[in-house]
UniProtKB/TrEMBL annotation:
GO molecular function, one term: S-adenosylmethionine-dependent methyltransferase activity
PANTHER family: 2-METHOXY-6-POLYPRENYL-1,4-BENZOQUINOL METHYLASE, MITOCHONDRIAL, METHYLTRANSFERASE
Pfam families: Methyltransf_11 (PF08241)
InterPro entries referenced in this protein's UniProt entry, alphabetically: Methyltransf_11 (IPR013216), SAM-dependent_MTases_sf (IPR029063)
Gene3D superfamilies: Vaccinia Virus protein VP39 (3.40.50.150)
Protein known as: SAM-dependent methyltransferase
Region named Disordered: 1-23
Location of the Methyltransferase type domain: 70-157
Keywords in alphabetical order: Methyltransferase, Transferase
The keyword Membrane is annotated on this UniProt entry: no
Gene Ontology annotations of biological process type: methylation
The organism's place on the tree of life at top rank: Bacteria
Amino acid sequence: MPPKRPRGGAAHVTAPRPQGKDPSLRRSLALFRAFLHEQDDPESCYSLLARDAADQVEAYDGPVAGRTVVDVGGGSGYFTEEFRRRGAHAFLFEPDMAELGEKPPDSAVVADGYLLPLRDGVADVTFSSNVLEHVADPETFLSELARVTRPGGLIYVSFTNWLSPWGGHEWAPWHYFGAERARARYLRRTGRPAKHTLGENLFAVHIGSTLRQVRARDDVTVVSARSRYWPFLAEAVVKAPVLREFATWNLLLILRRCPT
């Protein structure tokens, strides 16, 4: 059954958008160091990333306590668990059983992000971290995120763009020399096949085309388009064509669902 929004709670007052303040250099360095140990210490890496992402949501939309958060493609549930620790009614929808791991969060649902088993407008916050580059049809995926978000609700979407130094994921930055060559190098170096294959579970998503698609929509407005991890000029770099495809690293879109 789709999760129901709580009744009788205090009315939610939308927090004002942060004005001109970028995250600290210390925060960016901590995240970078955590990413370097993603393979050998995923618990620390993703727990830190989850706390940081929840902080970002609350910076744009106020406390999540008592509100319904839908986490789409959240893997083993680090984000869902962090939202729950903050008092949210958070629900995980993940299409890949293998990604859920051995101990997924309670009430986790195996579901495709193209067709979520939720009624329209159920979520106060719809959250998707580093999923867009793994779907073949980003526009349809974004439409589904918008559909399940209530009018006035927040949509958080981040993704690693293809021309980012991390665009090839585990075989980056060798993806600049071609995906197949990069995958072959990964196999030679590690002795095992790469997890991601371009055109199957990883797609070349670009910032410019994604921004044009989102800005052309009539069901959402763009609150912010910024680099997710940069400690300075996080919005400015996204405004520079060509440069943004390499320098943004990871695009964060904060969207607001338009009134119906």
